[in-house]
TrEMBL record:
Pfam families: Fer4 (PF00037), SCP2 (PF02036). GO terms for biological process: tRNA queuosine(34) biosynthetic process. It comes from hydrothermal vent metagenome. Gene3D superfamilies: 3.30.70.3270, SCP2 sterol-binding domain (3.30.1050.10). This is Iron-sulfur cluster-binding protein. Keywords: 4Fe-4S, Iron, Iron-sulfur, Metal-binding. GO terms for molecular function: 4 iron, 4 sulfur cluster binding; epoxyqueuosine reductase activity. SUPFAM superfamilies: alpha-helical ferredoxin, SCP-like. InterPro entries: 4Fe4S_Fe-S-bd, 4Fe4S_Fe_S_CS, QueG, SCP2_sterol-bd_dom, SCP2_sterol-bd_dom_sf. PROSITE patterns: 4FE4S_FER_1, 4FE4S_FER_2. Residues 177-206 form the 4Fe-4S ferredoxin-type domain.
Length: 437
């Protein structure tokens, strides 16, 4: 069997006649896709994604971006189990469409791989790197299938954001490739801003990932970790039930049995963008809000937030929502995981009025220089030592990751010189206080 390098240099592969994009589109639509586009993997916009694509399929030359529509009335329903079932059924649908396309291409000696729409992902990377290889939203944008809206969903010019995405990696080049849209279908109506129960979406296009992750994805990943740790930590059934309600336990059971459920996805439900959706909104905006937006905002339900966050403040303003305080474990296992984690777990409320620049020097298994800066309720991370530091921290990487994950305190590492602090130690505590854990 040839190695990857030999495959790349194989003249039979390099000189194959490009496939017709029109022919490929005809196949995709015949098999049930609502729309599709193609991207060459050498495109500069895919520089950060190419390694992941090659990991999945080393011979990949082209990415096919597939779009499948959902029934938007299901997604808009206040009965959220109906919306979740629509997500699950459409995931099954687009997966089968992609598999049928690949089988048809196989008959023409075109080989390919269908990555997962969502899960399963590579959980061996949890806390270290991103757990997926192919970013379907980026592929869709590059293939002209839409643009990311204020709600962080890809909005198709015709179908709006009531779509799900899949990608297919194939070993042939195309005669013509698609380009990104030169406009954004998002109409900046801010209905998603109003509907989000945790205020994750901001009118200025900023997005609070942590707020969205903690609530909407409560029964995925970190939320599931929190639940299992509460289960294990409880001394008996009575103590467990003081923390977790029967309805929450049954909701976890349902997600385990029939697929993880989203707690909201209201940002998608209320979005009026897209040629198929916009007429209903433009015809009577007040009626649209009363029939679609208001029932979701007025829906009695628990809202999962971290204490002392903006999400908690937003949820507290809605009398129909009941605040449920949670913990989301943050235990990075690499410096890359630490960097990504502090960006996600950063608490803007606790960073109010804080201006701090820290130079980190990591030694041991992973050697790295980093600059972490906090200013204007924002956090940034840069490679190397940039600017004048308010605090300098030198640490053994393994030790620091345990401190960051709250597995150990900094007391003994300081005494054993595995953690060295140059400057006021209280400044380090201020930084740690801004990271939710």
């Amino acid at each position: 069997m040839p190695t990857n390098s030999k495959v790349e240099k194989d003249p039979k592969i390099q000189t194959r006649k490009p496939l017709s994009a029109n022919w490929l589109k005809k196949i995709c639509l015949e098999e049930g896709a609502a729309d599709m586009g193609v991207i060459e993997i050498d495109r500069p916009a895919l520089d950060a994604e190419r390694e992941g694509i090659r990991h999945v399929f080393p011979r990949a030359r082209t990415v096919i971006s597939l779009v499948q529509t959902m029934n938007r009335e299901n997604i808009q329903s206040p009965a959220r189990y109906v919306a979740n079932d629509e997500f699950h059924k459409t995931i099954e649908d687009i997966t089968q469409i992609a598999r049928r396309i690949v089988k048809r291409l196989n008959r023409h000696k075109v080989r390919g791989v269908v990555p997962t729409v969502g899960f399963p992902m590579d959980m061996d990377r949890w806390g270290t790197l991103k757990i997926w290889d192919v970013s379907h939203k980026l592929m869709a944008e590059e293939a002209g299938m839409g643009r990311m809206g204020k709600n962080r969903n890809v909005i198709h010019p015709k179908f709006g954001n009531f779509i799900l995405l899949e990608s297919i990696l194939i070993d042939h080049e195309m005669d013509v490739y698609d380009r990104p849209l030169d406009y954004n279908p998002c109409v900046t109506c801010n209905l998603c801003v109003s509907a989000c129960p945790v205020g994750a979406i901001h009118s200025n296009w900023e997005f609070d990932f942590s707020a969205c992750y903690n609530h909407n994805y409560r029964e995925f990943m970190g939320g599931f970790q929190d639940w299992t740790e509460q289960l294990v930590a409880a001394k008996n059934v009575t103590q467990y039930r003081k923390k977790v309600r029967d309805s929450e336990t049954m909701s976890i059971w349902q997600s385990l049995s029939f697929g993880a459920n989203y707690k909201a996805a209201y940002c998608m439900a209320v979005c009026p963008a897209g040629e198929d959706v916009m007429p209903l909104y433009q015809e009577d905006k007040k009626k649209y809000v009363n029939n679609i937006v208001k029932p979701l905002m007025d829906r009695p339900e628990p809202v999962y937030v971290r204490a002392g966050t903006t999400a908690e403040k937003v949820a507290a303003k809605n009398p129909h929502k009941e605040i449920r305080h949670i913990q989301t474990p943050f235990r990075p296992t690499s410096l890359t995981g630490f960097i990504n984690g502090i960006k996600i777990a950063f608490n803007r409320e606790k960073a109010e009025g804080l201006n701090l620049r820290i130079h980190f020097k990591f030694t041991g298994a992973e050697k790295r220089l980093l600059t972490v800066a906090l200013a204007e309720r924002k956090i940034s991370v840069e490679e190397g030592h940039q600017g004048i530091a308010d605090l300098k921290v030198e640490a053994d990487t393994g030790t620091w990751l345990k401190i960051a994950g709250r597995e150990i305190s900094s007391f003994w590492p300081v005494l054993t010189r595995k953690l060295k602090i140059s400057g006021n130690p209280m400044r380090l505590m201020q930084f740690q206080n801004c990271i939710e854990n």
